[in-house]
Design a protein that fits this description.
- The structure holds three protein chains of three kinds.
- Helices cover about 70% and strands about 5% of the residues of chain A.
- Chain A is mainly alpha-helical.
- Chain A has two domains: about 160 residues, no CATH class; about 70 residues, no CATH class.
- The N and C termini of chain A lie far apart (about 50 Å).
- A five-stranded parallel β-sheet of chain B has the order 6-7-8-3-9, with helices on both faces. In chain B, strands 2-1-4-5 form a four-stranded antiparallel β-sheet.
- In chain B, helix 4 packs across helix 5 and helix 4 runs parallel beside helix 6.
- The two termini of chain B are about 30 Å apart.
- Chain C has one domain: Arp2/3 complex 21 kDa subunit ARPC3, CATH 1.10.1760.
- In chain C, about 70% of the residues lie in helices and about 5% in strands.
- Classes of the chains: A mainly alpha, B alpha/beta, C mainly alpha.
- Chains in contact: A-B, A-C, B-C.
- At the A-B interface, helix 8 and helix 9 of A face helix 3 and helix 4 of B.
- Strand 1 of chain A pairs antiparallel with strand 1 of chain C.
Chain lengths: ~260, ~220, ~200
């Protein structure tokens, strides 16, 4: 039983990331760009272009300052569930034979589809992590609010981020105390019952904490609204970047259309 | 000279990539000793304890427990069966519905059947004079009760060494006295991390200070 | 159980987004400053749970806990899952952008429905309560895997094998979640018998 590989990477990072070289751009631009980028990735049909987008997305991640090792681990985790499916595709899609194993025909068409899926998924997610994942959570919340996302949903987002470290830390300490008492997780009832107790106790403690927080917030006059503190400043280079990327994305999509 | 239960040589720790929390820490704990570790907040006393049972990985140096040099998780799992670690916050430790179930958790991890675990757990509660708490919901105990129960939950595993992290935290005078007399009667060697000077003085056989720059001050008799 | 972009067909994506949007809208109507913190905490808990792995033979699976979320939050589970899934996509790269709706719907819908169905009996002592708790944990995961499989199946014949494998591979996960849920709810019932009556639960 362990927090997945990404927990260490999480640790407060979302709240303190500086966005690397991309920090200078307006968060609204980054949010729009990430959606435009994803749309373009999905719309182009050529595998070569999808590959190009994936490379661009991953490069953006590097520019945004996401450490390469973390990036690779995350991409690997993303693919984990899907890789099996992609491996199956050559055998389930009819088409010209690539090779056959024991009466099973693998088709070029299926392989092609599988590769397309991997590239699309990688490119979209890389674009998201580079452009939106590099925003501090409070800025992300405000950006969403400025695009008309309901205030209460934004408040929920901010609170969730606020609690991730708290809940994660609480879980980590309880898990460590279990390990200190020689607990080794296995495939057995003792493990499931113990982890179940851990989850139940974690829930109760979380809810108690939430109640204390509610009280404290109400004492300070909280009425469900978060103050907007981050001043957006749309600058000339934002306009230039917006126009340039819109041109490129639309151009590529148009050009790839038959 | 008798071999140490736990010995630590030139131990160092740093948070991922950042500067050292401490380094060059060396000491040995022998049977019957009660070693107090003093030091300022944030100097890494809790971290030191968690290194000893492998909950974190040391950056440098070596840990030898019961004659075996420990590095892998498997080696530390063996250590945890013989070293009882009482956490600073009892709420991090008590996660089962009732006191009895929490006590059974460790013995089951040692390989006992549930019935055996219940027997030894009841016996331990009896021994510490808290048999009446067995079926209480651990969540609702008082601070002092929680502390004794966490102590019971590691003692029931019959450890050779106890690690205590700020055991008097949030205890009133009465609970503190009771804890002290309980600890003084125990045969185990101990490492106690504490701010509580009086408590340490009455409990420890020797003390040392963990310092920000890293070096453990030379071990010396307790001084007020 | 996140599906990634590039797999599902447009009608499936739209259907998923529609369900997610409707569910979130219903949830948001009951979200106010009193239950906001508890929803946030549970949303964070749900997020953290997806990082907790328990061994399954030589491999390991991560917890889902959507059943518990549905039981405790009702329709608020939709916004809670939406926020958690969006954060997972943006910060960890799980899932994707256009599949967000499908991923939210697949996880939240069974949780809300099973939660509502089992809520009247789940806090009972004895076999009935235990059975309900197991059904909640195992059923939510199983139903989610079924919905994932359906999303795949409706996107093309080529995915049928993958769809079947998705359900099969989640059977043991569902069993584990069932056992976990029983233990977790048994703990809550014993530690906090008045839990059901607490004010934030509507």
């Amino acid at each position: 039983m362990a927090l997945g590989h990404s927990s260490a990477a999480w640790n407060g990072q979302a709240l303190s990331r500086d966005g690397g070289q991309l920090a200078a751009f307006d968060p609204r631009l980054k949010l729009m760009l990430s959606i435009g980028f994803a749309l373009a990735v999905v719309l182009v049909e050529s595998t070569a272009l999808k590959a190009l987008f994936a490379v661009v997305g991953l490069s953006l991640c590097v520019i945004a300052g996401i450490p390469r090792a973390k990036l690779l681990r995350r991409i690997a985790a993303l693919e984990g569930f899907m890789v099996l499916m992609v491996l199956l595709l050559p055998f389930t899609v009819p088409g010209p034979t690539l090779f056959s194993v024991g009466g099973l025909h693998a088709s070029w068409t299926g392989l092609h589809q599988g590769v397309d899926i991997l590239l699309t998924a990688t490119a979209v997610v890389a674009g998201l992590m580079a452009l939106v994942g590099s925003l501090p959570a409070n800025v992300l919340g405000q950006t969403l609010a400025s695009f008309g996302v309901p205030e209460r949903l934004v408040a929920l987002l901010m609170l969730t981020v606020r609690y991730l470290d708290v809940v994660g830390g609480e879980y980590r300490r309880m898990r460590n105390s279990m390990r200190a008492r020689a607990f080794v997780a296995g495939t057995n009832r003792h493990t499931w019952r113990s982890v179940g107790h851990l989850v139940g106790m974690g829930l109760l403690r979380s809810i108690d904490r939430a109640e204390r927080v509610t009280d404290a917030m109400r004492c300070r006059g909280f009425d469900g609204r978060y103050p907007i503190l981050y001043p957006f400043r749309w600058q000339l280079h934002d306009t230039v970047a917006a126009l340039a990327s819109a041109l490129v994305l639309i151009g590529v999509v148009m050009w790839s259309m038959p | 000279m008798v071999d140490a239960l736990i010995s630590v040589d030139d131990l160092g720790y740093s948070y991922c990539g950042r500067q050292h929390l401490f380094h060059g820490v060396s000491f040995a704990l022998h049977a019957g000793e009660r070693l107090a570790v003093l030091g300022d907040n944030g100097v890494g006393k809790t971290t030191l304890l968690s290194l000893l049972v492998g909950l974190r990985k040391a950056r440098s140096g070596s840990i030898t427990a019961f004659g075996t040099r420990c590095e892998s998780e498997a080696e530390f799992v063996a250590v945890r069966k013989r070293v009882g670690y009482v956490f600073q916050d009892p709420d991090d430790q008590l996660f089962c519905p009732t006191v009895l179930e929490d006590l059974c958790f460790g013995p089951i991890n040692l390989g006992m059947s549930e019935a055996e675990a219940v027997d030894v757990s009841r016996a331990m509660l009896e021994q510490l004079g808290i048999a009446s708490l067995a079926d209480k919901v651990s969540f609702q105990l008082s601070g002092g009760q929680k502390r004794i129960v966490t102590l019971a939950s590691v003692l029931v595993m019959q450890p050779d060494v106890l690690l205590l992290d700020e055991p008097t935290n949030a205890l009133d005078a009465h609970a503190r006295e009771r804890l002290l007399s309980t600890l003084l009667e125990l045969p185990q060697a101990m490492i106690v991390v504490s701010h509580d000077k009086d408590f340490v003085e009455s409990l420890a056989t020797r003390s040392c200070t963990l310092q920000p720059a890293g070096l453990m001050a030379p071990l010396r008799p307790v001084v007020a | 159980m996140h599906v990634v972009d590039g797999v599902l067909s447009a009608p499936v994506l739209l259907a998923g987004a529609g369900v997610a949007l409707a569910g979130t809208a219903v949830g948001l109507r009951t979200l106010d400053h009193r239950n906001l913190p508890v929803t946030g905490v549970l949303s964070a808990t749900f997020f953290v749970a997806s990082l907790i792995h328990v061994p399954l033979g030589p491999s390991s699976v991560h917890l889902v806990l959507n059943g518990l979320l549905g039981l405790l939050l009702g329709w608020l589970a939709f916004p809670a899952v939406l926020v958690a899934a969006a954060l997972q996509a943006v910060f960890f790269g799980y899932g994707g952008l256009f599949v967000l709706g499908v991923n939210v719907a697949n996880v939240a819908l069974p949780a809300v429905l099973l939660g509502a169905l089992l809520r009247p009996w789940i806090w009972r002592e004895g076999a009935l309560g235990t059975g309900c708790a197991f059904t909640l944990g195992a059923g939510s995961v199983l139903a989610t895997s079924l919905l994932v499989a359906l999303s795949l199946a409706f996107s093309g014949e080529a995915f049928w094998v993958a769809a079947k494998l998705t359900v099969l591979s989640h059977l043991p996960v569902a069993l584990i979640e069932g056992f976990l849920c029983v233990a977790a709810l048994a703990l809550v019932r014993r530690v906090r018998p008045g839990f059901l009556a607490e004010a934030w639960q509507s």
